[in-house]
Amino acid sequence: MSTIADVAARAGVSKATASRALSGRGYVSEDTRQRVEDAAAALAYVAHSSATSLATGRTQTVGVVMPLVDRWFFAEVLSGIQQALFALDYDLALYGIPGDALSRERLFTTMLPRRRFDGIIAVGIQPDAVELEHLRRAQRPLVSVGPFSDSVTSIAIDDRAAGRIATEHLIELGHTDIAFLGASGTAYPHSFGDDRRIDGYREALASAGLSSAARIVDAAPTMPGGYAAAAELLGDRRGRPSAIVGVCDEAAIGAMIATRRLGITVPTELSIIGIDDHQHAEMFSLTTIRQAPREQGVDAVRMLLERIEHPDAPLGQVVASSALVVRASTAAPR
Amino acid sequence: MSTIADVAARAGVSKATASRALSGRGYVSEDTRQRVEDAAAALAYVAHSSATSLATGRTQTVGVVMPLVDRWFFAEVLSGIQQALFALDYDLALYGIPGDALSRERLFTTMLPRRRFDGIIAVGIQPDAVELEHLRRAQRPLVSVGPFSDSVTSIAIDDRAAGRIATEHLIELGHTDIAFLGASGTAYPHSFGDDRRIDGYREALASAGLSSAARIVDAAPTMPGGYAAAAELLGDRRGRPSAIVGVCDEAAIGAMIATRRLGITVPTELSIIGIDDHQHAEMFSLTTIRQAPREQGVDAVRMLLERIEHPDAPLGQVVASSALVVRASTAAPR
DNA sequence: GAAAAGTGTGGAACCGGTTTCCGACACGCC
DNA sequence: GGCGTGTCGGAAACCGGTTCCACACTTTTC
């Protein structure tokens, strides 16, 4: 592989001039610039990123930390981030959050502070105080996707509103016996927006004077989780709710599959609403609260680069858009 | 942030000694080593990765190139790679394969040759000759997950065998009218193992003297894809096959959902078999050919690091394990 | 007891870029 | 003609590590 010295020699100039010609910074005559570019092209020269980073202090890389990569939300966000970074000629360093405490500590104490990236996007994780301090110490701007503390630039939908609006939709249709499929954040890792969705559910019931009807059925935020919980909940004819709010579309879809197996028709006998607008929601005609995690990823990149350029810019909390999408899984109760 | 010079000064030794003490290479007295380590700990010193890379020529990073991240197979492989690299203290640089030719070219000509990583794992992509040349020129070992040409170290299941075994399972149960849900590689991007699965299907039929019964129904390798294709195929009572092979579990699951909506009972009226053992296969009691993409990712890392250590080691083609898992979606025809 | 081998350390070169500093030159202006 | 300003290019320092080499001292070997 050729170095900038090779390019300079071939173009008959010094390293300094070659560097200026290629980067476009500083005075270089048009004639010289052309010669250097020709030489670079002839040698298929590509700058060595480590050398560039060392000299400039910039890595042209963004670190992404997420607990999982194999759930819809995370995969979508990652996809958006990836696409946006590529367009900006940035590289993407991916880090998982290891399950065990020791590995997790190693991530924060050793792997992240190596200054391999110019900024970090944290997706759906809640660093504790010590970890935040490590991040801060790394002197790299941080943008978070998903609910986060106020001291961090972040982007997320209003999960509480999502839970509330979903529930209100059912109340407006006339439902009074509405169950919620999901669990609070501590039960299942990496889904701590779920707490707020539950809060929204409770809030909507309270506003309608239905507080005492609140029924939260423990379910993992996955399709099998929703399936199992719904099978349990709906198995007994007596005491069936007339409507279900899924903590996310995966759970809601699992519930829909359970209804088919149990011979319950949706929406005539049971209304189901989800949150997310998962890629499979349309196939199941699932009414849901739409959010666009891919776009949140793109926005996170935009916000992060903004902060990399202007480290002193005030931090902001962006509320990502979400909207009720009515399909055929909800209707007035019989 | 402190540098190794700070550590050296604090420990009262030279940079050279400090470096040796921390890396463990070369002679350092136990006493000195301890002093250097104490100094490093006191200063929370972490080596600057760009400086280390520049000096050693090693980046401690592996590049991963995959077309998508939001499909089960890819997410699983990525997960495995991620986990294995973390355990080895390697970083992971993720690259998507952009859709448009121009971006794709930029990826190969500019982003990959920056020498940001010591090796590359390509998942489910088929670089053309020019692109392979770029990779080769980067002087970095390459390991591929998924079907690949013989000149590359790779790991994949035997897709042809998977297609054959799935079909044979149905034939042994007594089926003679077996449709295949899927499409050849050119129709849908990033699933070129599918061709070989179709070959296996044809092969099994041929061995049983059923060649003329081959019926391949075009379907995207996704749940909605399988659903739509199955709905179309099964909508008309006449001409229904007695069994279906799904090119992957997503498609097979889509088909199962279609059967429920159409009131067809599985497996009494229709047998369905998939390939992959997707995380949802169990919930649908789907008979399938199991493969473990996460382990393939782990193995790919092992193979790549082996090649990084020993660049001249002979390249190999590893056939990942796969096995028939019989659940309740297949049975003898009526 | 001298030569050889082993151990411990520091100085300096090196990896491959970028950037500062400085000198040379051209030009316009007073 | 002298001077300031703008343009162009090179030498050298620098980023933060690693490693080669020289040297001193200690221990082993014959």
UniProtKB/TrEMBL annotation, chains A, B:
Q: What SMART domains does this protein's entry cite?
A: HTH_LACI
Q: Per the record's keyword annotation, is Transcription regulation included, yes or no?
A: yes
Report the protein name in the record: LacI family DNA-binding transcriptional regulator
Q: Which InterPro entries match?
A: HTH_LacI (IPR000843), LacI/GalR-like_sensor (IPR046335), Lambda_DNA-bd_dom_sf (IPR010982), Peripla_BP_I (IPR028082)
Keyword Transferase found: no
Gene3D superfamilies documented for this protein: 3.40.50.2300, lambda repressor-like DNA-binding domains (1.10.260.40)
Arranged from A to Z, the UniProt key words for this protein are: DNA-binding, Transcription, Transcription regulation
The family database entries (Pfam families) matched by this protein are listed as: LacI, Peripla_BP_3
Instruction: Please report the organism this UniProt entry assigns to the protein.
Output: Microbacterium istanbulense
- GO molecular function annotations of the record: DNA binding
HTH lacI-type domain boundaries: 2-56
